[in-house]
Write a structure and sequence with these properties.
Layout: E1 3-5, E2 18-20, E3 25-27, E4 34-36, H1 40-47, H2 52-62, E5 66-69, E6 74-78, H3 83-97, E7 109-112, E8 119-121, H4 127-134, H5 150-160, H6 180-195, E9 198-200, H7 210-220, H8 226-236, H9 242-261, H10 264-270, H11 272-276, H12 282-298, H13 305-317, H14 323-331, H15 339-344, H16 353-367
Antiparallel strand pairs: 1-2, 3-4, 4-6, 5-6, 7-8, 7-9
Length: 369
């Protein structure tokens, strides 16, 4: 199996920290296309991280849903993704969550270097941190037998080869005790230091993520003016996380207003300037449509053909989504014009494919307008 130096330094042939080169396998077609990483467990072992962490990181960076089945050793990222692209993202994951770096912010997730013992903080704003906090790494006490990482295995192997002291020898008092008991004790100390690579601070419990705070604020202030909503988003520091922001806005601002105030196109136009700050690319347009699928899935009373078409018309008239993008969204990944767009955003939809298809079928009259 090809190996790479962890964290770069590809020119150093004698670099001691290595990992397997990522392998990807694309399966399925159409809306069901997905990318499997067959050697994710091997990669994760070399990084001393659970394989779910880098897999979830791929999902965060690509805006794609992932499926992690540790029992079957199967790790999937929805959509078609080349191995080179995933390898690039893996390098980013290593830099953010493994390699030691400077960071002056107060953090909750900490990197613990096995080589030098230095501890540094990671960027708590990344979406993966939410998953790590909810799924902390297994502690040394709870680790199953045989789950040692490669460095621990090497330490144990080298320690077991240490010479046993001759009980009859007249060693000096300062000599290293190499008796089986002493060796075993030193191995335990090394394992204790090596196994725990990510430490979760206890005071992180109960704290909310910025997008959760935005959800609650919008729920209580659904009639707030656009400027006030935008100021709140800036205050929470998530103005650049467009996919998260758009989802929060759609799911919290539209349901009550659509039902109470009617005239859906007018309600969308009222919020158009706010949404335009976050819809600046084709990817953002598709993200907005994906968030709308979630809205319709959660509020079945809105899932009527005329209502779906009114929502799309509101987006179109407010210049939030182009007609071609709506047409491509209705056609799904079979759309020739935006095939690459759908590959990048294969999972910016609600989870149930049958519901997705139902929504798009109800939207077809819009394409005929």
């Amino acid at each position: 199996m090809d190996t790479l130096n962890i964290g770069g330094n590809e020119g150093d042939r004698f670099y001691r920290y290595k990992m397997p080169k990522l392998i990807s396998k694309i399966e399925g077609k159409g809306n069901g296309i997905k990318t499997v990483v067959p050697n994710m467990s091997d990669i994760a072992r070399s990084l001393s991280r659970p394989p779910t962490y880098p897999t979830k990181f791929f999902g965060c960076e690509l805006g794609a849903q992932v499926n992690c089945d540790e029992k079957k050793d199967r790790f999937i990222v929805n959509g078609a993704h080349e191995a080179t692209r995933l390898q690039e993202l893996l390098d980013v994951f290593i830099k953010k969550f493994i390699i030691i770096g400077k960071n002056a912010n107060t953090q909750k997730v900490i990197r613990d270097c096995k080589a030098c013992g230095r501890r540094t903080e990671v960027d708590m704003r990344h979406k993966l941190v939410t998953y790590i906090l909810k799924h902390p790494p297994t502690s040394p006490k709870d680790s199953a037998e045989g789950s040692d990482d490669e460095l621990t295995k090497r330490i144990v192997a080298e320690a077991s080869e240490l010479p046993i002291a001759d009980k009859n020898a007249n060693d000096d008092d300062w000599a290293v005790d190499t008796s089986p008991e002493a060796v075993a004790e030193r191995i335990k100390d090394l394992e204790r230091d090596v196994k725990t690579s990510l430490i979760i601070d206890d005071d992180s419990e109960g704290e909310q993520e910025p997008h959760e705070m935005l959800d609650e604020w919008l729920e209580d202030n659904s009639e707030a003016k656009n400027n006030d909503v935008y100021k709140k988003i800036k205050e929470l520091g998530i103005s650049k996380e467009t996919d998260m922001v758009l989802k929060c806005l759609v799911l919290n601002l539209f349901p009550d207003n659509f039902q109470k105030n009617g005239n859906i196109e007018k309600q969308i136009h009222k919020r158009a300037k706010l949404f335009q700050k976050f819809v600046t690319s084709l990817d953002d347009q598709l993200t907005l449509l994906g968030a709308t699928e979630e809205l319709l899935n959660e509020h079945k009373e809105l899932m009527e053909s005329k209502t779906v078409c009114k929502i799309l018309m509101g987006y179109y008239q407010s210049e939030l989504v182009e007609e071609d993008v709506i047409q491509a969204w209705i056609e799904g990944s079979d759309s020739d014009k935006f095939k690459s767009l759908f590959k990048r955003n294969a999972s910016v939809t609600c989870a149930d494919e049958a519901i997705n298809q139902d929504i798009r079928n109800k939207a077809k009259p819009f394409a005929k307008c």
